[in-house]
Amino acid sequence: MKNILFVASEAVPFVKTGGLADVVGSLPRCFDKAYFDVRVIVPKYMCIPEDWRGRMTYLDHFYMDYLGQSRYVGIMQCVYEGITYYFIDNESYFWGNRPYGDWLFDLEKFTFFCQAALSALPVIGFRPHVVHCHDWQTGLIPVYLKDRFRGGDFYADMKSVITVHNLKFQGVWDVATIQRLSGLSAYYFTPDKLEAYKNGNLLKGGIVFADAVTTVSETYAKEIQMPFYGEGLDGLMRARANSLRGIVNGIDYEEFSPATDQYIAKHFDARTFRKEKPANKRALQQELGLDVDERKMMIGMVSRLTDQKGLDLIAWVMDALCNDDIQLVVLGTGEERYENMFRHFDWKYQHKVSANIYYSEALSHKIYAACDAYLMPSLFEPCGLSQLIALRYGSIPIVRETGGLKDTVQPYNEFESTGTGFSFCNYNADEMLHTIREAERIYYDKKREWNKMVDRAMAKDYSWHVSALKYQELYDWLVGW
Ligand code: ADP
Ligand code: GLC
User: Fold this and answer.
1) Within the chain, which residue ranges are assigned CATH 3.40.50.2000?
2) Å from CA of 249 to ligand 1 middle
3) Half-sphere CA count of 367, side-chain side, radius 13 A
4) Rounded distance, CA 401 to CA 215, Å?
5) For residues 172 and 195, what is the distance between their CA atoms, to the nearest angstrom?
6) Burial of 196 per CB tally in 10 Å (0-12, 13-18, 19+)
7) Contact partners, residue 468, CB within 8 Å, separation at least 6
8) Which is nearest to 402 in space by CA: 206, 226, 161, 207?
9) What is the spatial distance between Cα 128 and Cα 118, in angstroms, rounded to a whole number?
10) Alpha-carbon distances, residue 471 vs 82, 230, 467 (angstroms)
């Protein structure tokens, strides 16, 4: 039996700000339980809903020296759908109504978390063969495993993998601060280790010291070796190319299932969508105050409203788009300028545009189920889960060909009648608009073709089972048996 520990800053169903939480919450359940004992450790944020906090049980606690003080580290536990989750408790770090906030405080918070998580393992009595880290928040773990946690039997030979979900966020501050917070010696702060462009960089530490590096699609693994997508670390990515693999994400096929979804108006599946899916559109049109007409093409978006998601392209052509015969439904929060942009168009085209600037699990499911097309013109997209959910609900993705979008959406070919979506290559608003209009043409003029595309989209399998095997192979290779 191989023991695997996931260490991450968020996990569904406890706390989620983006796709990272979906991955950490669903992948551990998909490993072969006969060979892998996979457990997860995350912070016990005070913003975890009371429902979930109530289900945790106290396991133990200890005190750990950190930044010259002795700090409380509580360990809570919760078994959810067969997976054991551990929570690191310390209210002076994990307070607040969101997991992240102030950059500098977050650096200290997650440095504490990395040290506490590793220190908690002997107390818990779980000795992982592989520690699987996720994103910059856990970047120090591979470094610590080669440094202060190296001696003694317990940590000896413990391997680490780091998965990069988003290279844009690296955990950067000046060297002196990172050195002080991490407690690492000056030896580590050179450009071949944690220093990058004169700053300290936690993700870089993880990438340099981990025994293997993965990212969440094959295309993104290639892209980040190039300057445009490399966020300043493309040289390092090229240097580590031999240890870098792209393993595409999956989604939880039980949580996201149009045949059983608790949130949607009418269930459907690959056989019945022609008849039943439109009821979801009508229900949503009614709920959101749009014109109720099931023949109108509805385009959906559920997204963090940030530059990454290509929203400036949408802003650029929004008036033109709204004058087409479509409806646009948006759910998301993020940068104020994008929130206000969508609010403005909601006001201007009341019966055609619905901007919902908040977070809602329920509405997100309704949108995936109701819309005909799903728009995701990202500037970059390490994997993207939304388009996978859209495919599962028979909503045709319209995407930019980057990262995981390129790997998971096959462009429609009208002559061969193949493909599962529409895509464009350049980061250009006219190209995007042209592609959306291409989709409109097929939707309105060739409905049978459209529906055949929905057949193909719903037949795709983006559950975890293929990718979980790839992670298993990676763990086997790292452990050596
Ligand atoms: P990212 O992780 O970059 O935000 P992904 O496509 O990988 O993008 O994952 C985003 C996840 O968050 C999806 O499950 C999506 O449905 C969900 N999501 C994003 N914004 C909202 C929102 N406002 N309400 C509900 N779910 C949201
Ligand atoms: C990040 C990426 C997204 C990816 C998710 C899960 O948030 O932006 O593309 O799907 O992580 O890996």
Assistant:
1) 2-250+465-479, 273-460
2) 14
3) 28
4) 17
5) 9
6) buried
7) 27, 30, 31, 250
8) 226
9) 10
10) 19, 23, 6
3-state secondary structure 303-340: EEECHHHCHHHHHHHHHHHHCCCEEEEEEEEECHHHHH
Contact partners, residue 278, CB within 8 Å, separation at least 6: 294
Which residues, given as ranges, of the chain have pLDDT below 70? none
Please give the pLDDT value at position 151: 80
Residues 6 or more apart from 110 whose CB is under 8 A from it?
9, 136, 137, 138, 140, 171, 202
Cβ atoms of 283 and 266 within 8 Å: the answer is yes
> 273-460, what's its fold?
Rossmann fold (3.40.50)
DSSP bridge partners of 375: 398
Q: Does domain 2-250+465-479 have CATH number 3.40.50.2000?
A: yes
Q: How is residue 354 written in tokens?
A: 């619905």
Atom of ligand 2 nearest to the CA of 385: 10
User: Is the CB of 165 within 6 Å of ligand 2?
Assistant: yes
pLDDT digits (tens, 9 = 90+) for 33-44: 999 999 999 999
Write out pLDDT tens, residues 70-125.
999 999 999 999 999 999 999 999 999 999 999 999 999 999 999 999 999 999 99
Alpha carbon distance 468, 181 (integer Å): 35
Which residues lie closer than 8 Å to 271 by C-beta, 6 or more apart? none
Contact 204 CB / ligand 2 (< 6 Å): no
Q: What pTM was estimated for this model as a whole?
A: 0.97
- The pick from 217, 245, 249 for probing ligand 2's pocket by mutation, whose C-beta has the most ligand atoms within 8 angstroms, reads 249
Sequential DSSP letters for 245-286: EE------TTTS-TTT-TTSSS---TTTHHHHHHHHHHHHHH
Query: What is the C-alpha to C-alpha distance for residues 421 and 439, in angstroms, rounded to an integer?
Result: 9
